[in-house]
Design goal:
The complex is a heterodimer of chains A (115) and B (113). With 115 residues, chain A is mainly beta. Chain A starts with a strand and ends with a strand. In chain A, 38% of the residues are buried. Chain B is mainly β. Chain B is built from no helices and 11 strands. Classes of the chains: A mainly beta (115), B mainly beta (113). The interface between A and B is medium-sized, with 31 and 29 residues.
């Protein structure tokens, strides 16, 4: 069975500091991986996704993530945090043989950005 | 395009009442899904559909029914609401294909007393 673990339910960084949000997955075959962001009282918005090919994936708002098969990880990074990055971030996995667009989500990481 | 729309935005129910959460998309997406979001648990799949007339259960289907009579609409029915169904509900849609991006609606916040 597939699963996703996000390390740290809350992460706090200072404005301008590196953002690192951790995600590890469990899957029998390399899956498709996604990062979504949720701003307060809004739905989820796709940040980036890994669907084979290049293992370093660039997304919107300066975020990027690297797929590391050997570590079963897909950590999200941003070199310099901005106040507007404060939100909840979800890592999600979709199996290679998945039907129906079924995403398995991690529990989420709330990012706070201090001035 | 309006994208994925959900109604209502907020609803309060009493235990045992029934209601339907509406979801519609105007992107001609084949796949549609319902998730519930609870603190510390991320989003969990309730039901999904791969096309009109085809639905299947997700991770937490108990207490919920769905049907898909058209490509555009995918309503979620609570037959007899329970306090455990207090949650935020999100509808999502995508083109077919495992790597396709899912687009989420703004959510419906449900409180069951």
């Amino acid at each position: 069975a597939q699963s996703v673990t996000q390390l740290g339910s809350h992460v706090s960084v200072s404005e301008g500091a590196l953002v690192l949000l951790r995600c590890n997955y469990s899957s029998s075959v390399p899956p498709y991986l996604f990062w979504y962001v949720q701003y307060p009282n809004q739905g989820l918005q796709l940040l980036l996704k890994y669907t084979r090919g290049a293992t370093l994936v660039k997304g919107i708002n300066g975020f990027e993530a690297e797929f590391k098969k050997s570590e079963t990880s897909f950590h999200l990074t941003k070199p310099s945090a901005h106040m507007s990055d404060a939100a909840e971030y979800f890592c999600a996995v979709m199996g290679f043989y998945n039907q129906g667009g079924k995403l398995i989500f991690g529990q989420g990481t709330e990012l706070s950005v201090k001035p | 395009n309006a994208g994925v729309t959900q109604t209502p935005k907020f609803q309060v129910l009493k235990t045992g009442q029934s209601m339907t959460l509406q979801c519609a998309q105007d992107m001609n997406h084949e796949y549609m899904s319902w998730y519930r979001q609870d603190p510390g648990m991320g989003l969990r799949l309730i039901h999904y559909s791969v096309g009109a007339g085809i639905t299947d259960q997700g991770e937490v289907p108990n207490g919920y029914n769905v049907s898909r009579s058209t490509t555009e609409d995918f309503p979620l029915r609570l037959l007899s609401a329970a306090p455990s169904q207090t949650s935020v509900y999100f509808c999502a849609s995508s083109y077919s294909g495992v790597q396709e991006t899912q687009y989420f609606g703004p959510g419906t916040r449900l409180l069951v007393l």
